[in-house]
Amino acid sequence: METPAVARRGRHWPWSALGLEGPVDLRSVKRAYAARLKEIDRSDPDAFGALRDAFDRAKQMAETNAPARPAMREIAAGNAATAPLPTEAPPAPQAPPPGKAAPPDPPEPEPSAAPTAATLRKQRAAAPKPAGASPWMIPIESLDALLQSDPAQANAVFWSRFDRAIAKPLWDLDDLEALARTEMASDLSRRRAMEAKIYQALSTQITAPERGYPTPMARFVEAQFAWSEDGVGASKRLGFRSNLQLIMYAHALSRPMPERSLKERLMPLDPKWGYLKVGTFLLLWLVSLRGQAIQSPYDVLVQVLALMLFFAITMWLMRGLAALARGLLRVTRLAGLAQRLFAAAMPETEARLQRSAEARSYAMFLATAIALGAMFVAGTLAG
To answer: What span, in angstroms and rounded, lies between the C-alpha atoms of 25 and 330?
Structure first.
């Protein structure tokens, strides 16, 4: 007995769900699925699940009914059939009319030997090569056609072009949009991998989330994955990530901004952070005066310059230690626990550090000043 869901499908399912009148080849199935995917509401799990079920079934039926291709060894041996075999016996030769001699039988063709490997190599070398035959020079528009003949190479070229397009802080949006228009990009698993790669690129390229990132890049991300319109769906797809909220915050800031140059889009710096750094450095300088003999303005200048140099070296070391500590916490899977403990102890400070690059810079400045002050005090007490 059929279930209600199966009964509603009808006898023309899955073709009717894809907008097709009947069985078609695999390429037409993928095109119909890509077209229907743009028409339905992706946030509706029932509609998307029904379309995906129809696509999987239609793809399976198209692959089952596809004609079998000859094996490579048969092609190399010259035994692959290139034309349909005759289904009827050839007509019997008719007797010549009386008084005329029978025409001579045509000479039988000499049996040709199977081509050797050397002959095949020469034929392939002499054959004209299509434009863009190199894996790195294949046009993006021909990837769908290449997918039918060589899926492995098409997939390799797709990901190599995609990775190269997002490798730099300013993406190659022309290549990204061309890749997104291909039928390959309509595959659900490939789209999830594209989204994960874009998120990883943003998480490593965005240094100041409160300033956002270039608007054209944000517009492409929003058009393809709708991070602002469907933030819950994006969180479910990307899973738990330590800086997910930070990237989503940067994306929300970048998408509505008008297209302006990067210099015009930079937010003005808050002067209070500069005052705090100057005051912290003066306190560190006063601490360093203990045990120092100042006899002339020249001694003050030398001491300040030496302190600035020592401070820069120490800050560089502190940043290296901080990066090492983050790496160890990530490897030992304690990064999430440490972040939660810090947020529970100082929630306001944690929120400010998450959203302000200037606050993070001052935190590193203050940590360096405290470390240097402790060293000066310890050296004075030891002396």
So the answer is: 48
Instruction: Retrieve residue 137's tokens.
Output: 């020079």
Site of tokens 């304690």: 334
How many C-beta atoms lie closer than 10 Å to residue 266's C-beta?
A: 12
- The half-sphere exposure of 49 on its side-chain side, counting CA atoms within 13 A, is 4
pLDDT, one tens digit per residue, over 149-178 is: 888 888 999 999 999 999 988 899 999 999
Give the number of other Cβ atoms within 10 Å of residue 93's Cβ. 9
Q: Answer for the pair 180, 143: CB distance below 8 angstroms, yes or no.
A: no
Q: For the chain, what is the mean pLDDT? A: 76
Around Cβ 149, how many Cβ atoms within 10 Å?
Answer: 9
Q: How far is residue 364's CA from residue 326's CA, in Å, rounded to a whole number? A: 14
Q: Are 143 and 184 in contact (CB under 8 A)?
A: yes
Residue with tokens 């769906």: 233
Q: How many whole angstroms separate alpha carbon 113 and alpha carbon 78?
A: 9
Tokens standing for residue 148:
């039918």
The pair of structure tokens assigned to 256 is 């509505």
Q: 139 is written with which tokens?
A: 């046009």
- HSE-CB at 332 with a 13 A cutoff on CA atoms is 10
346: left (phi over 0), alpha (psi -120 to 50) or beta: beta
Task: Tell me 17's DSSP state.
Answer: G
Q: Which two tokens stand for residue 104?
A: 């001579």
User: How does pLDDT run across 58-104, given as a tens digit for each residue?
Assistant: 888 877 765 555 555 555 555 544 444 444 444 555 555 555 555 55
Tokens describing residue 124: 């392939």
For residues 199 and 12, the answer to whether their CB atoms sit within 8 Å is no
The set of residues, in sequence order, having a beta carbon less than 8 Å from that of 194 and lying 6+ positions away, is 162, 185, 224
